[in-house]
Specification:
single chain, alpha+beta, Nuclear Transport Factor 2, Chain: A
């Protein structure tokens, strides 16, 4: 994934609120939370670890990782054991987190402009635009109503769905290596992302000591 794609994941981080459905719309939920996340990213008083911890607290409760996993794996979800399902959710969550953490460390002042909202029963699509120094990137968020609040289960960037993208690649992996093979590949990918982060830390510490 390129930097822009990873940055778009950041703006998907939907923050917590005690408001009920009568008080918050899908668009309000996204705008409120994007503002909260950007405030964290812009704070000069936070070191990298504290910034990541604060964003993680915002992120985890707001993604519907189980719904995303069910859509991504499709028929393979139904064939998987409960243990395999739980492990996939855990690893997929870690994959997304470490992906957007890499983008957070490179944040350079991008902003978010709100677009239109389409509401249908317990589903919603909210348009936003990521504004960089050179262009605007359209982003559509898919949310569903659950327990009187809105949770994200997909994001489309320039018409490309995050869930569909993973569904295609993961389906091919399951076909080639089985469900356990997919889980092993995911675990290796997550560990490689962690390794890249650690190497960056070491390089940064070495540079600062020179």
């Amino acid at each position: 994934m390129g930097f822009t794609w990873r940055l778009l994941l950041i703006s998907l981080l939907l923050g917590q609120s005690s408001w009920g459905l009568a008080s918050v719309s899908p668009s309000m939920r996204i705008k409120q939370t994007v503002d909260e996340v950007l405030e964290v990213l812009r704070s000069p008083d936070l070191d990298r670890d504290k910034r990541r911890d604060m964003v993680r607290i915002i992120v985890r409760p707001r993604f519907d990782y189980r719904a995303m996993s069910q859509i991504i794996l499709a028929q393979n979800w139904r064939k998987a054991s409960a243990e395999q399902q739980d492990r996939f959710i855990y690893l997929f969550r870690d994959l997304l987190e470490h992906t957007y953490f890499s983008a957070m460390d490179k944040y350079t002042g991008e902003t978010v402009r709100m677009g239109r909202e389409k509401l249908s029963d317990k589903r919603a699509v909210v348009q936003t635009y990521i504004s960089t120094s050179s262009k605007e990137v359209p982003v559509n968020y898919n949310l569903r109503l659950k327990n009187d609040d809105w949770y994200a289960y997909d994001v489309s960037v320039d018409g490309v769905s995050l869930v569909s993208n993973y569904r295609t690649s993961f389906r091919n992996l399951v076909r080639e290596k089985g469900m356990d093979g997919l889980l092993e590949e995911l675990e290796r990918k997550v560990e490689s992302l962690k390794t890249v982060t650690t190497e960056s830390e070491v390089a940064g510490a070495a540079a600062s000591s020179e």
